[in-house]
Amino acid sequence: MSKKHWIAVAAFALLTAVPVQAYVLLGASWPVPQTRLFVDIDYQGGSSNSGPTWDQAFAQATEEWEAVSAFRFDITATASHPCAGVSGSGIPEDGFRNGVGFHSSNCGLPFGSSTLALTYIYSTVQPAPSITETDVLFNSNLSWDLYSGGWKGSIADFSRVAVHELGHVLGLGHEDRYPAIMQTFVSLGDSTEAPLADDIAGATTLYGAPANPLARILLRLEEPAVGDIKTGVANLRGWVLGLQPLDRVELYIDGLFVTRVPLGAVRRDVLGAHPEYPNAANSGFSMAYNYSNLSAGNHTALIRVYDTQGYTEYQQVNFRVVRFSNPFIRDSSSVSLAEA
């Protein structure tokens, strides 16, 4: 028996957005905030040119939505063709499972010239509009890989397209009036890789917020600490975690930018305390800083962190610098380290 379906499409060009927050719902949602996906993608032998498998990347894409909503995806490592049961596809029904995969056609029909992927959504009307099955289909006629940063026109990033299509799986439609991963089109250089505020609002409207939501960026400046007394060359250090890859850590002293702080130091203690964050084992930042360049007295140190999606977090502390009034000390009795 063939299925009736809706089709949601992601394509290449970009529409101009205006500042209106208005996520779009497709009109049906899952009756409970959970579903099972059958994922065993064999495209190009199962792995991207960058190394990770498509299955791994797709699983990470589901985590993007789980981090910002109460919805949960269960993944079974078994193939289920996304065109199974579609009239004209030649693929027999497989038990109405949620399939994911690459295919050279839209279940027997040609893909649109700019179509990256699409999602088939099946629903019932009574007693309320409810999603019963979804299938995600990626266009294998294109070149695919995994990468972060700006969108490359000649190579499609599987991860962010998977995040977009999973938004349709949840019941979200295209949103072109506000920055969102659910925008209909993607353009060269676009760096949106994860759900933005508008997407999150739509997902939480459908299924609620996660029971224990994680901070987008978790930052701790450990040295200098509040009220520290500094002199000479000493450490400036701490750690930072992000749900998205981190872009940079910046240091400001007394409100003025000083430098970027190296990030990626091994912090096993942070991993033990926050295993729920990606890359927690390499979350440390540190550098040597010459506090003698500052005048004696009170100062502020501010650490500001950015992730690759443009989100930012900061922490500021007040500390005090003590120093000799003259670098050449002739009288030993004038030296006091009581506050050092």
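The record above closes out task 2.4. Task 2.5 opens with a second protein, given below.
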Amino acid sequence: MNYFLILVRNDIRNIFRDKVLIIFCFLPVIMAVLMRFGFPLTVNYFPLIKDYRLYVLAILCLVSVTGPAFLSSMIMLDEKDENLFTVLRVMPVSSGTFILFRLLFITLLGFFASWVTIVFSETAGVNFFNAVLLSLQTGLTAPLITLLCITLARNKVEGVTFLKGLNFLSMLPLVFIFAVPDWEYAGGIIPFYWVYKAFGSIEIFTKMIVYSGIGVSVNLLFISWLYKKFQSI
């Protein structure tokens, strides 16, 4: 456990060492403020958007979760550049356990980021239980994004590019939901899709539970596959 505590302490030091990374720590608060105060102002000019408030909240939650994902990705890509993952193989704990603990920590940060965005945005219809359930599902996208980035990117420059692409991918499911309703469930292969389906079904409790359960399962499948792929690098 001491090794894990040292890991967390070092990660926090690395974050606060870079002023650019510190900004990402405030993303949940910024997103909550945008939803709480900016969304009502937007409705005044574009009244039709009022009916899509939950989808807007989902987008802002996904943006919030990219904060922990970005921070962890940059730290791990630095370690990748310096071949520190090779050093992990001679540590008292296995490299697999080491990475799993870090992914768990990232998941908790993602959960917290999403929960802060939901709770402090005070969006109608989202009670405490809904916020916890939705944050659990959305929080799992943090380790997913991290694994995608560190597996596919060779350095921090490529990592930033991949993260930008993933931001676009996170909104792609909306195309299936609104633009091509006949092929709506074709977007289900994209993990982010189930986040939107769960948020959009808050008013129907059973549907929200089902979509959240599917979303968690899809995320875990992708995380498991990417984790194995990352270990083989």
